[in-house]
Specification:
Layout: H1 7-18, E1 23-26, H2 27-34, E2 42-46, H3 50-56, E3 61-66, E4 71-76, E5 79-85, E6 88-92, E7 97-101, H4 106-111, E8 121-123, E9 127-129, H5 134-140, E10 142-143, H6 149-155, H7 158-170, E11 173-174, H8 176-185, H9 194-205, H10 210-219, H11 222-226, H12 244-255, H13 259-268, H14 273-285, H15 294-317, H16 324-335, H17 349-354, H18 361-376, H19 383-391, H20 395-400
Parallel strand pairs: 2-5, 10-11
Antiparallel strand pairs: 1-2, 1-8, 3-4, 4-5, 6-7, 8-9
Helix pairs in contact: 6-8, 7-9, 7-10, 12-14, 13-14, 15-16
The structure holds adenosine-5'-triphosphate and magnesium ion (MG).
């Protein structure tokens, strides 16, 4: 194990030892180390209280990030660590403990953790500390709650989603009772905030194995909770974990026929404004038969940007439609020098006033009209052409009558 760890991490263990404290690597970082994945963030647990950690790590920059849990974020020689003292939790409210106590043993700290694979601890001195057969479950690729699954999920319902996320990411299966408890308790997700649900759900559909994550959400009935009144999940591919908007749209398409129900989901959970806009763009334009016309592409590109036009292709690719025309038009349009808004027109409001159009609402209307003409034919975006357009029939009659 030591040879898989950077020198700086080993130094940390030494520093605690010298000061007669214990320090252990725990949680996801240990899991990742054992599955030979690159470690993103190192989590440690220790018998030192936060004030003691602060005096052990004098050189490091330290921020208190979870005061109630005693978690410290440590910036040490270019690394970021999270160090939390051993803690025991009680009086849960379906999500968080109402009471936290410190000054306990390692075993009690590990016992409050959710799954056996997350309850391993490691230090150079003691090697693997494994009270709940976490190593065996890790080797056998099993997600198992520590203790009675129902009791553990009742304490904190978010663990249902964490379980699915780990099973998907690691490609593990559930131990039977853990699975049955998740399924039975899926409706209890109503006790926790939609922000927290969305956070976990997002990690599942944008994580390493989203298709498996979605299948597990279906099998555990969590999908029904997240997407009420949905039809049976269509066998779609969900192969765009790099793009939450697209992934969510594909899922909405696989679950609902009715756009209204799709929108309800979008507004029930606290998605960002930008994400809603992107998803709605796809949902509302998916049947647009004119979408391969350059005019439509230019118009939507001006309103929604290149990114959304390209996402549209990736979205439609999943529906099996023939997209060659659309792709060709999009390529052509993307090569054009874009006129993306009224501001890019070759004429301004002032120019129009100068040629005699009365100041007021007519100016805005004329500019909009010219912008639309330019979207139809970008070569018209020249001052003399546009001025001619507004001053000659049939257009000028609209403005000067
Ligand atoms: P990742 O960082 O990939 O999300 P992780 O296992 O490190 O996975 P964290 O949320 O960073 O998860 O938490 C670190 C550890 O704290 C977990 O491994 C687990 O032991 C414990 N833990 C975190 N959240 C909970 C929870 N809701 N209930 C019980 N234990 C938890
Ligand atoms: Mg972690």
């Amino acid at each position: 194990m030591e040879n898989l760890m950077p020198q700086e991490v080993l130094e940390l263990f030494d520093l605690y030892n010298k000061n007669n404290f214990k320090l252990y690597l725990v949680g996801g970082s240990l899991r990742d180390l054992l599955s030979e994945r690159q470690i993103m963030d190192y989590d440690f647990t220790t018998d030192a209280l936060p004030s003691e950690t602060k005096s052990i790590l004098k050189e490091a920059k330290i921020i208190d990030i979870g005061k109630e849990f005693g978690t410290l974020k440590i910036f040490y020689k270019g690394f970021e660590f999270e160090i939390t003292p051993f803690r025991k939790e009680s009086q849960y409210d379906h999500r968080k403990p109402g009471k936290v106590s410190f000054g306990i043993r390692l075993k009690e700290d590990l016992e409050r953790r959710d799954f056996t694979i997350n309850a391993l601890a490691w230090s150079p001195r003691e090697n693997m500390v494994d009270y709940f057969n976490g190593k065996e479950d890790l080797d056998r690729r099993i997600i198992r709650a520590i203790g009675d699954p129902k009791k553990r999920f009742k304490e904190d319902v978010l663990r249902l989603l964490r379980g699915v996320r780990f099973a998907a990411k690691e490609g593990f299966s559930f131990e039977k009772n853990t699975f049955l408890a998740i399924k039975e308790m899926s409706g209890d997700l109503k006790y926790i905030s939609r922000e927290r649900i969305l956070e976990e759900f997002t990690k599942i559909i944008t994580g390493e194995n989203p298709a498996k994550g979605i299948r597990l959400l279906e099998e555990t009935d969590i999908l029904k909770f997240l997407f009420p009144r949905s039809s049976k999940l269509k066998r779609y591919t969900f192969n765009h974990p790099e793009d939450l908007s697209l992934q969510l749209t594909l899922l909405l398409e696989a679950l609902y026929k009715d756009v209204q129900l799709q929108k309800e989901h979008l507004y029930r959970y606290p998605y960002s404004k930008e994400l809603r806009r992107q998803v709605l763009f796809l949902l509302e334009h998916k049947r647009d038969v004119l979408l391969d016309q350059p005019y439509f592409i230019r118009k939507n590109r001006a309103e929604f940007g290149n990114e959304n036009m390209e996402r549209f292709i990736r979205f439609k690719e999943n529906t099996g439609e023939n997209l060659s025309l659309y792709k060709k038009s999009l390529q052509d349009v993307l090569k054009e020098k874009p006129c993306l808004s009224i501001k890019n027109l070759a004429v301004s409001g002032k120019d129009l006033i100068n040629i005699g159009i009365p100041p007021g609402p007519l100016i805005g209307k004329s500019l909009e009209f010219l912008f639309d003409e330019v979207l139809k034919d970008p070569s018209k975006n020249k001052k003399e052409i546009l001025l001619r357009l507004v001053t000659t029939p049939p257009y000028n009659q609209r403005f000067f009558e």
